[in-house]
Amino acid sequence: MPLTFRSARRDDVPAIVEIYARAHVELLHAPSTQQLDEWIRDERSGTFVVESDGRIDGFAFAISHDGWLVEIAQIVAREPGAGIGWFALREAVRHAFETSRAHRVYVEVVASNARARRLALGAGFALEGTWRDGYRREDGTYADLCAYGLLESDRRTGAA
User: How many of the other CB atoms lie within 10 Å of CB of 147?
Assistant: First the structure.
């Protein structure tokens, strides 16, 4: 199945909402339709979809902070373990460094999300620290949050 990574459009919103509604995406604060529309229109952010055979199978949301710093804020996949998250993260990182000309890219992952933590490490990110109770779930409980970073120089030197 060939995958493509492209900018999200407003007509992609229903498919993105459906992906967030899937049971395995429970750790994220799911954006509303209105929020997704705002993200797509916001010039500071990058909203992307992963397509496979014309179907939207993933979504990535990145935020540029002053141009030099990019946060990959959310990546969701229709099916876990299918390589969609890996593809989305790799392409979001490529976009951040090559198109946005970022110096640094970071992701934050709930400590209990082992799959996302392996994904970040596998993509070359370095664990930079853990914030105790750094994430508040929608039900009001807290979870530790792990911070991962990747520098542009890491990619140039092959460290990532």
Answer: 17
User: What ranges in 32-151 are assigned the alpha helix state H?
Assistant: 33-41, 84-94, 114-122
Residue 53 domain boundaries: 3-157
Residue bearing tokens 């970022």: 102
CATH number of the CATH domain containing 9 = 3.40.630.30
Looking at the 3D structure of the chain, how many domains does it have?
1
Helix (H, G, I), strand (E, B) or coil at 112: coil
DSSP 8-state symbol, 32? P
pLDDT at 133: 97
3-state secondary structure of 44: coil
Which pLDDT does position 27 carry in this prediction? 56
Nearest-10 Cα torsion for 144, 135, 117, 86: 180
3 DSSP β-pair partners: 52
pLDDT along the chain (160 residues), means of 10: 91 93 72 90 90 94 92 92 93 94 95 92 96 92 96 79
With CA atoms as reference, report the closest residue to 16 among 62, 53, 47, 52: 47
